[in-house]
Amino acid sequence: MKTFKYILLLISVSLLYACSKDENDLYKEERNSLLSSTQIGIYQNGKALLLFDKQAHQYYCNPSQKLFRIQDAQGKQYTALQLNALPSGQERTDGKVEGNMGIKLDGITQLYILQSDEQFVWLWSDDTCIGFILPNIGLSGL
Q1: Which of 23, 31, 52, 103 is 20 to 30 A from residue 8's alpha carbon, by CA?
Q2: 41 lies in which domain range?
Q3: Do β-strands 105-116 and 78-83 pair in parallel, antiparallel, or remain unpaired?
């Protein structure tokens, strides 16, 4: 009878571990979707919310102000990412997206560098499932 209880306990514990997902795996598909793109823009849940279009937009960044902006050619329509700090290494930061192009995202928390290369920086927040692809202009220290 004791052996049966131990076997039952072992099976229960095994099932518990088999069913639990690592938190990093929860957004793996969305992160991979972001990493598979090199199009500057804002992404949520693995889908583009706003993509930079060379023909219609201008890109502005001021790393000293922690500001990254996509705007129309006239500068009247814009969407801006304002960070509290520039993330580096494993450091994380918070930020918000505002503007008048229909996208407003307050409370972007725990934003970190998912990947960077000579051309782009991929930022990601697991908390909000929001990602950004930015040109690596003035961000080479990240």
Answers
A1: 23
A2: 23-135
A3: unpaired
